[in-house]
Design brief:
The complex is a heterodimer of chains A (450) and B (275).
Chain A lengths: L3 H8 L5 H22 L3 H20 L7 H26 L7 H23 L9 H25 L5 H19 L26 H28 L7 H23 L5 H10 L17 H19 L1 H11 L1 H6 L4 H27 L10 H11 L11 H20 L4 H26 L1
Helix pairs in contact in A: 3-16, 4-11, 4-12, 4-14, 4-15, 4-16, 5-6, 5-7, 5-14, 6-7, 6-14, 8-9, 11-12, 12-14, 15-16, 15-17, 16-17
Chain B lengths: L7 H7 L8 E10 L2 E11 L4 E5 L6 H9 L6 E6 L2 E3 L4 H6 L2 E4 L11 H5 L14 H15 L15 H14 L4 E5 L7 H16 L3 E5 L3 H7 L2 E6 L2 E7 L5 H10 L8 H7 L2
Parallel strand pairs in B: 3-8, 3-9, 6-7, 7-8
Antiparallel strand pairs in B: 1-2, 1-4, 4-5, 9-10
Helix pairs in contact in B: 5-6
The chains are: A mainly alpha (450), B alpha/beta (275).
The complex binds adenosine-5'-triphosphate and magnesium ion.
Magnesium ion (MG) binds next to helix 2 of chain B.
Chain lengths: 450, 275
């Protein structure tokens, strides 16, 4: 990375596309340099900046409509199912496989969870609709089913060495088809009241103002503690640590982002109609301007946060995750190192099956029903989220937070285009373009880094 | 592969000097489709001994050693460790028996760093069961530092390291886990003179610690410098095993190229080797 040729080129006049490549290149290099000194992931930093640009851009284009707390609440909730599954898809793609069946598994498990809470427990078993245990039983049924489906598909892939593309393409057809065999594909409703919290619909689907601040503060303490603990440990071993200012910037940036998000959630007041209902239910007299009750963090977003943390822990702090990545880097080396690669591959599919069920639960709760079309076409969104998030089909490369950000980027684009009146086909065109651009930009940066 | 049929008599017959050899491979046979890569090969290794395994390209050296390291189990034949028949169906089994290997291909995961490769499959963990990356990096710095004091890239994926640096990681991985038997398949092929010297020193030290080493090398002088005995292979068969002290480099070259033992070869044939 010498400076001289770049400067020499800059002196020469440039035409057309080349004129734009120079400043873009400068920005990319700036981000790279900053990220390197702060020891943060370059790719993630870039994605966060891109997301901010998308939000600000749509904010202007929609006269502020996009940036209202209400819209951001919706965008965040709508991102959840794809984001949850994308965290698992990362591990599958990293280990050089693919799963095309996630949308169908999500739909199948969602339907079965709906059946459990709206048919089997209350009617078939005659236990009624009011059991406090219903939501958890339904969820466990879904998760076990997801794990079982993942185990069947993963077993065929890992132990019988059937290509994952084939197995999961079959799965895509099988699990979707089976939905129609359960209850002739009727819509199953309504969902249990507690279960419905997972959907994020108001008023029950969020955790309220006070809890939101509590969650925010806990996360901030966690960030600060994690940064300090890892620094102390590296010091103990006498390893180089990032400069103090970078530490402070990271802590401040992290906490500001978290608290900013919590503030945004809390500046979304419960819509007037719901607020009045709340006032009546709690015997409060509404003040003249109406009751202002902060909605707070959406329950499914909190769930996504927990899933993301859990998956990050598995992927980067557990041997399992390390095996997944080394299999992706060099399958032969992983075997020679004594790793049980088959069991590891099986594990990635079981995990993804469970995540599909969790995503299915969120979606069923959001729709307040089990419907046959749940998750149709999601396999492509999930794969796209992982890829936009930096997961490489060559294997061995990808991050969990990247995939979550990828899902949020896609949902932001879609919602943003809705707010400025772009029709649905053009939304697909735009998301498709962004997918290719993200990977192309990656490829260019990678090539330059070499 | 039924190892239980070994008779005690057969074991005793091959033991010349007291205790059983550390490793004994008997009548090893490996085929790939129609290619007989290794046929009826017998080699053995004692504690604190270096056995040089030499032969031309495709002679079957790597294949023979892969049977011992569990990478590709033999089709037939027996492996004995400390005189006891063992089955080595996979690399894990070999490691459990104290057999560590530096593969000719190095067998590194390209996308993770030196420490992750060194501890792959045997990660250090903290009390709560998470990976202890700091401890692994620390150990890695120590063991690689012994081979290559200039190694600094501890946080880089190995794909962007030089051939020699990668080799240093592969060697470090094999010597870090208290191996009893070390298989080194051309360990210095990519190394510079200084690093090669380091590896020679390490081999001598490991030998003095009582570790048995199979050393595959195309550098006949390397082999003469380090090995106690030399086993020569040609076209998948063992030409013979000789004591280094009893032979000249030319005689070993004769074995490698013509497949003739020192007592079978004529002076004229030896002279022709130098063309
Ligand atoms: N995985 C494989 N599949 C098919 N044939 C193989 C395989 N591995 C080795 N062989 C064949 O077995 C024979 C012995 O190969 P091997 O790698 O053991 O030779 P080598 O003595 O290590 O040679 P070199 O000095 O070139 O490393 C060769 O003819 C080779 O083509
Ligand atoms: Mg070889």
């Amino acid at each position: 990375m010498t400076q001289v040729p770049g400067d020499a080129q800059a002196a020469a006049p440039r035409r057309g596309l080349a004129r734009w490549i120079q400043p873009v290149g400068a920005v990319v290099r700036g981000v790279q340099l900053g990220a390197r000194t702060m020891e943060v992931d370059i790719r993630l930093t870039g994605m966060i900046l891109a997301l901010i640009a998308i939000w600000v851009g749509f904010g202007f284009a929609s006269d502020g409509l996009f940036l209202t707390p209400r819209n951001l609440y919706d965008v965040s909730v709508q991102s959840v199912p794809v984001a949850i599954m994308a965290t698992g898809m990362v591990l599958v793609i990293v280990s050089r496989n693919i799963d095309l069946s996630v949308g169908s598994i999500m739909g199948f498990t969602a339907y079965m969870m709906a059946m459990t809470q709206a048919q089997w427990i209350p009617q078939t078993l005659g236990l009624g609709y009011n059991g406090a245990y219903i939501w958890i039983v339904a969820l466990i049924v879904g998760i076990l089913l997801g794990a079982l489906i993942g185990a069947i598909q993963g077993g065929l892939i890992a132990y019988l060495e059937i290509p994952s593309f084939v197995v999961t393409l079959g799965g895509l057809l099988i699990w979707r088809g089976l939905i129609f065999k359960v209850q002739q594909g009727q819509t199953i409703a309504p969902m249990d009241n507690t279960f419905a919290i997972l959907g994020g619909n108001l008023p029950q689907g969020s955790i309220g103002g006070l809890l939101t601040w509590v969650v925010g503060i806990i996360i901030c303490v966690g960030i600060i503690y994690a940064l300090i603990a890892s620094r102390r440990k590296r010091r103990e071993y006498g390893f180089p640590v990032r400069p103090q200012w970078a530490l402070v910037v990271l802590m401040a940036g992290g906490c500001a982002t978290v608290l900013g998000a919590m503030w945004a959630y809390n500046s979304y007041p419960l819509p007037p109609l719901l607020a009045t209902k709340y006032a009546v239910a709690h015997a409060i007299t509404e003040p003249p301007g109406g009751l202002i009750i902060p909605v707070g963090l959406a329950a499914p977003v909190l769930l996504l946060g927990a899933v993301t943390l859990g998956m990050m822990f598995l992927a980067t702090r557990r041997p399992f995750g390390r095996y997944v990545f080394s299999i992706g880097g060099n399958p032969e080396a992983a075997i020679l190192a004594g790793i049980n690669t088959r069991r590891t591959i099986l594990g990635t599919y079981v995990l993804l099956g469970i995540l599909c069920a969790i995503a299915g639960a969120v979606q069923a709760a959001r729709l307040d029903a089990g419907v046959t079309s749940t998750g149709t076409g999601y396999e492509l969104l999930v794969i796209a989220a992982a890829v936009i998030g930096g997961t490489s089909f060559a294997g061995g490369i990808g991050t969990i937070p990247g995939a979550v950000l990828g899902a949020v980027v896609m949902q932001s684009l879609k919602s943003g285009m809705v707010t400025i009146g772009v029709d649905s086909p053009m939304q697909d065109v735009a998301v498709g373009t962004v997918l290719i651009l993200a990977v192309a930009l990656d490829a260019v940066i990678q090539r330059r880094a070499k | 592969m039924d190892m239980a049929t070994t008779t005690q008599a057969a074991t005793a017959a091959t033991v010349v000097t007291g205790a059983a050899p550390l490793v004994e491979m008997r009548d090893i046979f490996v085929a790939f489709g129609g290619v007989h890569a290794v046929q009826d090969v017998c080699v053995d290794l004692r504690a604190g001994e270096v056995v040089g395994l030499v032969g031309g390209n495709g002679a079957g050296k790597t294949t023979l050693m892969r049977a011992l390291s569990g990478a590709h189990p033999a089709d037939s034949g027996e492996i004995l460790i400390d005189g006891h028949p063992v089955v080595i169906p996979n690399p894990r089994a070999a490691k459990a028996l104290g057999v560590e290997t530096i593969y000719q291909t190095l067998a590194l995961a390209e996308n993770v760093d030196a420490a992750a490769n060194l501890f792959l499959g045997r990660e250090l963990k903290t009390r709560i069961g998470s990976l202890d990356d700091t401890a692994m990096e620390s150990a890695t710095r120590k063991v690689i530092g012994r081979l290559n004091p200039n190694f600094k890239n501890f946080k880089t994926p190995v794909v962007s390291l030089s051939g020699g640096q990668r080799q240093a990681i592969a060697i470090s991985r094999a010597i870090h886990f208290n191996a009893r038997v070390l298989i080194m398949d051309e360990p210095t092929a990519a190394l510079g003179p200084a690093e090669t010297e380091q590896v020679r020193n390490v081999i001598k030290q490991l030998k003095s610690e009582g570790i048995g080493i199979f050393l595959i090398s195309h550098d006949i002088h390397d082999v003469f410098d380090l090995a106690d005995r030399i086993s020569v292979m040609l076209h998948g068969k063992l030409v013979g095993t000789v004591n280094k002290a009893d032979v000249t480099t030319d005689e070993v070259l004769g074995m490698i190229i013509m497949g003739k033992l020192p007592n079978e070869v004529t002076q004229k044939e030896l002279a022709q080797l130098h063309g």
